[in-house]
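INFO  loader      accepted 1 record
INFO  loader      residues=488
INFO  predictor   begin
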Amino acid sequence: MADVIGYEEKVPAVLQNMQGGYPRFVDSRFLQLLKSALAARLGCEPARLFVFKQGVRPHLLEFIRQQASQPSIDVLVWHTEYASVEVLECKDSALLPQIRFFSQHTGANVSAREAAGLVQGMGAAATDFSGHNNAPGSTHLDAAQRIAAALAELHDGVSQEAIFVGSSGMAAFFAAFRAMQTIQARTGRTAWIQLGWLYLDTIEILRKYSPSPGDHIRFTNVFDLEAIRQYLSRNANRVAGLVCEAPTNPLLQMPDLPGLAALCREFGVALILDPTIASPANIRCLEFADVVVNSLTKYAAWQGDVMLGSLVLNPRSPWYTEMLALVPHFLFAAHPADLVRLGDQISSYKSVLQRINRNQKQVREFLGGHPGVARVYHAQDEQSAANYHAVARPHSGCGALVSFLVAGDMFAFYDRVALPKGPSFGIQSTLLCPFIYLAHYNLIQSAAGRQELAQYGLHPDLLRLSVGLEDPDQICAVLQAGLSPASS
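INFO  predictor   done
INFO  writer      dumping tokens
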């Protein structure tokens, strides 16, 4: 845990020892190489360079203008000689945090594979994706077709016209939200409802892109539809949409999707649904939402070496035609090499998920019966079971995640337990994550922040476990070894 805190507090000794990190938060080594090579050519510092996907520039400039009363746009130098990407040099240190924020939360950076190809093209360094090679003869068009077909099947046979694949799950959410926000604003609807505690980047996009603080409306209880109904009955004409996860991250609370869908349709509110944790293979989701966004980094890219996201439109949505036209304007495209890599893995999606479902069930039952565990959270627990079963597909499970609180010292358990540790989920390796410390460290540091967490039922010591493909008996044995001192 000392390293987790060191990472959050930017302790140099910790950061210098990091070989990598989640790509939206930590530049891949290929992106670092690319920035160094570009900086040498352009005569600037790598820390002031950003390498974005094509089409990012207008969205970034709009974001900066929204955040600053008098933005110094003239200090942003765009190097247009690189046709396939958008290279930005920021000459004003004061703007760097805003640009980093935008890049992190929207997934606008180039991917590791895209950066590797650019470095190789510049002759700056050799690149190596050994162990992650693509199938012989596989092209990105073939891969895109396989991915679209798989996604159509996962979303109940929807037309491939309604399916979009972007550079990450957050890129998919950004496109869905901004497109729907644009449409709804035309009729004066500018407020958005956040249902429960959502993934950090989703919350931040809702917060930063709301025209005013009063346009970001938060409901802490995902099970209280009556409270939402009462609010909408008084404010329906100003509410553009509602964003929810099924289940939520990290408490794994499952809202009543049929009830929520009926409520949104009654009041003309768009519903953007993110079922990434459960997976559209485990639950029915498109029939309830206007837009379904999903991180393909989880389960689809089960080998943990590529980031992509999907956005699927419901053809029955009243906004379907407008969204078809607008989404491409906001969506950051997937790189061909990443499509090829996902295309090589996606055929195993369902079989991998079935194994993860079984393993997660065994592990969560083990945790639930262990005296060293104070509480276990999962999408089929007592408070969520009815809502989950109402939309669960036959012979399904609830995905990789189980969250829990240990009865003893969380720091000691985390340091002791011999499991891989990291922030992602839905891959072949089991991963343990001190979620609140990694995602919301700033809130832990103040009484007000801890109070905000408590309003949503979030304890700072909450651990999130992503169960992988290993032998579940072995996973439980490792957990047992870590928990034994805590229960004594």
